[in-house]
């Protein structure tokens, strides 16, 4: 369960490859992040989450770790990271690191040893079989690859260069706990735990997410690493039910501060057909999911509030409108960030950055490239494959951060590792910070209001206009305060009676209210009032 400072914090995710390049090699780095700390402080950020910067062959952009203790030289040195931790603390912010514990790189010394022979001491750190079952990899194809030296197959739920660790081996677990403690002792303020729902799996009985040993291992990790430390831990758990997620973050056990749940993110997918099979988002589905999340987390546990990350497309291109970029960006964040939970901003969301539609030869992401090959082999038309990739490829949100209108958006003077979105001349931090009516200043104000109003942290959630497929509105209420959020999810003006809220203070709106009986396209309005004492 989250501590009070965690409940009040705003987290900002940095994807280091694409954030800021200090040495002009085209790759973002640790010193580049350090240069931008004042920018993050000014926005109102409390916690920075850093995607992996560990030693890695970069098969999956750093989520394939070959040494947990060392930093990938492309990002800098361990001294640079320690310096970043100190400087982040000096600026009054905290820093959490991304930690991948389900698998390593096949270039990790453990796997290099394990593959040598069946009786190697590290063999049991991974999962082997003579007769692989039919589990498929998230990145396409079988989840088993034959290892030439011993003739056995090793298990990898992701790329074949990402062999899964065998968490049932106690020696492995204790090596991991030692490593976690070493990082925490260096001053890291916690971790985002990548696909942590998979560590308790039983591969041979095909129980992967929320497997039979998950709770046991989380409890053991808490006792060995997290107990007595004032840190933030967020578990990425895409396969967990909402109730289980809330249970694993409940106050009594302290197993995790919060989790990432993805129920709301999969609503533009055809059920059971995976992320590439698209369908339009139905606002009624989104209401149902958010209502349920809010009800469950009010009873126990704590959740996270996010639209985008390094694996998900940018929200404004996915759910909003690029033609109404400022209004739909601000509306989406109003809708989300006044709910109960800890808000997460993915780099560039505060600018209203949009997704970029890559040409086929421009894609870098292993998942996208594998999907293209597999879909083509299945006879899916190239135009349909591209449509899915444009909507859902992980590369869409990985384009470099747009700092200003100079060469390469001010990201690098070198050649960027991935293409810069050409719209950077218009959409960039320098422009946004000068535009009082832009996304940046709106988000900054929104984050400030979240902290000022206790009702955002504690208020009971009630969905309003429940049957409307165009308007998302809700109330948050404590005995002392009432807050009402009204969002037009469409690009049309809608009839709506705002006169009901004449006694309320207008706390926030993304465009002037011109008419008490109308919502402008993508309008977001937040009303607030202090209740008469004792009025429940």
From TrEMBL:
SUPFAM superfamilies associated with the record: (Trans)glycosidases (SSF51445), Glycosyl hydrolase domain (SSF51011)
Alphabetized InterPro entries for the sequence: GH, GH13_cat_dom, Glyco_hydro_b, O16G_dom_2
Domain (Glycosyl hydrolase family 13 catalytic) ranges: 13-398
GO MF annotations in UniProt: alpha-amylase activity
Any one GO BP annotation for this protein: oligosaccharide catabolic process
Keyword Hydrolase applies: yes
Family designation: Belongs to the glycosyl hydrolase 13 family.
UniProt keyword list: Glycosidase, Hydrolase
Matching CDD domains: AmyAc_SI_OligoGlu_DGase
Protein name: Similar to alpha amylase
UniProt keyword Hydrolase present: yes
Native species: Acholeplasma brassicae
Lineage: Bacteria, Bacillati, Mycoplasmatota, Mollicutes, Acholeplasmatales
